[in-house]
Amino acid sequence: MFPASEVIGLAEVWAGKARSSGAVETRGGRAIRFGVQHGHNLYRRPDRDRVEAELAEKQPRHLLLTPTCKYWGRWSTFNARKNPKFLKKLTKLREREVIVVNWLMRLYKQQVDRGGEAHIEQPEASILFKRPSAQVLRKPGKYHAFRSVLDQCTTGLRDPASKAPMQKRTWIVTSSQQLAHVLDRKCVCRVPHQHLQGTVRLASGNTVRRTEFAEDFTPELAELIAGVVMRLHVIAVGRCKWI
Ligand SMILES: [Zn+2]
User: Fold this and answer.
1) Given pLDDT bands bounded at 50, 70 and 90, which one contains residue 1?
2) CATH no. for residue 30?
3) This prediction's pTM
């Protein structure tokens, strides 16, 4: 057991801006981040081994996995069907991703084995969950997960230029009944959504793809996650597991 002051509340793997970690720290908790922006190339075995060892050593209470979604989402599958050249490229990229996905699933299971909570965030219907290594999430047993459907317009995702809401329907697959409960949020917008396509100019003057802009969690979403991480006592909310 660690002294309370040394307990890590949250570890984020494949973290971009790692806003959830920031929100945990703002509330007085401790967090660690792993990913390209934090000095780890997770496509390299030595880096993956280093991350895995650090997680085993520090034993965070929550582990948030946010693997890159561009190769698994509905759009890449759709585009690949239309374009054989893209399909070839996508198949190669997915081969590289599979190694990382299998590793993330190993981290998920290790986290649950240690008695912690593990969470994966992906776009709705991501085919990542069709990988053989991810099947344990849907089957009765130790790793059988909860799944929430989160419309990110409910957590403040807006087009940076027009301020129109962006829905970005997301699956949260998690061992935590509490997080599944908090992040199950459906759209109630009365105005049209901005679709996640094309580019947009930010206040800084830089232009980014909307899909890229929407990769980072909004501060509201990070707050909701931090709220669950910092709550030590879990309230039973009677949710069903993912089938
Ligand atoms: Zn909406």
Assistant:
1) low
2) 3.40.50
3) 0.91
